Amino acid sequence: MADTLRDIEAKVHAGERLSFEDGVRLFRTRDLFAIGRLANEVREKKNGNRAYYVRNMHLNYSNVCIFDCHFCSFYRKEGQEGAWEMDLDTIFAYAAKARFEKLNEIHIVGGVHPKLPWNYYLEMLRGLKERYPELHLKAFTATEIDHFTRIARKDAGTVLAELREAGLDSLPGGGAEVFADRVWNRICSGKARPERWLEIHRTWHRMGGRSTSTMLYGHIETDEERVDHILRLRALQDETGGFNAFIPLAYQVENNRMPGLPRPTAQTDIKVHAVARLLFDNIDHLKAYWIMTGLKMAQILLSYGADDIDGTILEERIVHMAGAESPLGVSEEELCSLIREAGRDPVRRDTLYRPLEAIETTRSNH
Ligand code: V47
Known about the structure:
The protein is of the alpha/beta class. It has a single domain (19-356), classed as TIM Barrel (Alpha-Beta Barrel), CATH 3.20.20.70. The longest helix has 18 residues, at 223-240. The strands form three sheets. A four-stranded mixed beta sheet has the order 8-1-9-10, with helices on one face. It has a three-stranded parallel beta sheet with strand order 2-3-4, covered by helices on one side. It has helices spanning 6-13, 20-28, 32-47, 88-100, 118-131, 142-152, 156-166, 181-187, 194-206, 223-240, 266-279, 290-293, 295-301, 332-341; strands at 50-54, 56-60, 105-109, 136-139, 211-217, 243-250, 285-286, 308-311, 345-349, 355-356. The protein is globular, with a radius of gyration of 20 Å. It binds ligand V47. Ligand V47 is lined by residues 71-73, 172-175, 177, 212, 214, 216, 247, 249, 251-252, 256, 289, 292, 318, 322. The site of ligand V47 has 20 residues, from strand 5 and strand 6.
């Protein structure tokens, strides 16, 4: 342990909360072993030897969006080549795969569409719930919810209550990017602002709902801005306790309006996960989202604070349109053997981290 981190180590061992300055110092150190060892201790204290995964799929109902987030490779303008929107029957037919594959969760997000009516979203959830009651519907980022308040002309509480009534089970964590004004104004200035993102999650949590939280890292943000983002989420979690997990999202560099930025390095991937694990004393789970980091890095991150590797993820589009090199999906068998090779016990979970039975892997990497 570098001498300069001894006081932070002592705080972690005493279970004391780390400060903003501690967070920045952790980001500045080159001693990956030191932060990794500490993050690993915290992971183990919170989650034992378990590493979670879920059988899930993504459904991107449309990529048409009124905003122009600079990092986004997914969105198209209405009528532009490559734009799509799914009608409800297509969505219901698409979700049939979920039952066929015995999935637990379907993660539904799309662009902020200029024309689809409020009823489309309600009917989507109703129709899915009716046909596939066993599926957990994790749907609509706070950015979409904010848009719904305008098209429905209702406040966020009412919109969320109506969505829940229609079948919404939890909210995903997208749309948070990096909360700092400087970054927000440069990469996604048009859309629902950080205060609004936090307000919508707060409202949902107060209704008893659960959600996840994210941060898009590895582009123009500074160490201070990362810590600020994490601490704002930590403060909301103190208030509501409604976040299941934090998910760092590694910036993907291709096909967007921020050309010339390098991919996040391994050093950055590891630091962001490890420091987040150390700062979030109040969020139980840290997800290594392998679609963005790649499977190899996600496996390494299981030793640097992460206790969750997301899932089998049939059909992911957003990240792959941005040049992700990871496969489009992975078999449960492969995920489990990656987890076992990392020395953890794979635990299949539902969206709320209740354990389900994991499969036995025939291939052992030990
Ligand atoms: O909000 C868009 C990000 C997010 C790029 O809640 C990009 O469990 C990197 O939020 N490079 C959507 N990221 C994905 C998301 C998510 C993923 C997995 C699990 C969960 C969860 C949430 O994707 C957007 C944005 O931050 N994104 N473009 C890009 N070029």
